[in-house]
Amino acid sequence: MTAMTDKGFVLTGRHVVAMLLGFFAIILAVNIVFVYLALDTFRGVTTEDAYVKGLNYNETLERSRSQAASGWQVDLTATPGAAGAVTIDVAVNDVAAAPIASLAIAGSLRHPADEHLDVPLSFAAVEAGLYRAEIGAPTRGQWDAVIVLTGEDGATYRLEKRLWLK
User: Fold this and answer.
1) Cβ contacts of 164 within 8 Å, gap of 6 or more
2) Which residues neighbour 120 within 8 Å (Cβ) at sequence distance 6 or greater?
3) Which of 6, 89, 114, 121 could join 133 in a cystine, given CB atoms 3.0 to 4.6 angstroms apart?
């Protein structure tokens, strides 16, 4: 039973219990929202199968040595275009600085913090040794370009470059 006094409303046990339950319900709801947002964004995993890649590290070093021995000179540039679009050019030359034609190029533009923003890149040959990919307006900021070039003889070259898109 509640009683009104000249100073206002008097609390009873039911009111206190209702306020406590409401308080903890709000805390629980906010925590659920935070957990959902935390799991939906960056998971904290920077490398898939890190353990297996660590076991195969000697193979990774050998691929790196053979890539350096190939003598390929690879240059990647990103140029802003109209309406926020970005043009990514990859120039490839051999040891004698001659352009290398007929390469198969696969790649992606990876966001360092949110894998949902990653963009696959589709390259086309512009001229001998110059390959271009154009993408729509990505989010401004830092991106990682990961490009894998494969020659007609099966030789591969992997390039990872941090880009700052403005």
Assistant:
1) 141, 142, 143
2) 107, 108
3) 121
Take residue 139 and report the two structure tokens written for it: 């989010």
pLDDT on residue 33: 95
Length of the chain in terms of residues written: 166
**pLDDT of 146 over the 90 cut:** yes
- How do residues 41-85 score in pLDDT, each as one tens digit? 766 666 778 888 888 888 888 888 888 888 889 999 988 888 888
Question: Within its chain, how far is the Cα of 74 from the centroid?
Answer: 22
Q: Give per-residue pLDDT as tens, 2-20.
A: 555 566 778 899 999 999 9
| pLDDT at res. 81 | 82
Measured CA to CA, the distance from residue 150 to residue 145 in angstroms comes to 16
What sign has the CA pseudo-torsion 33, 35, 40, 44?
A: positive
3-state helix, strand, coil in the chain (%, to 5): 35, 35, 30
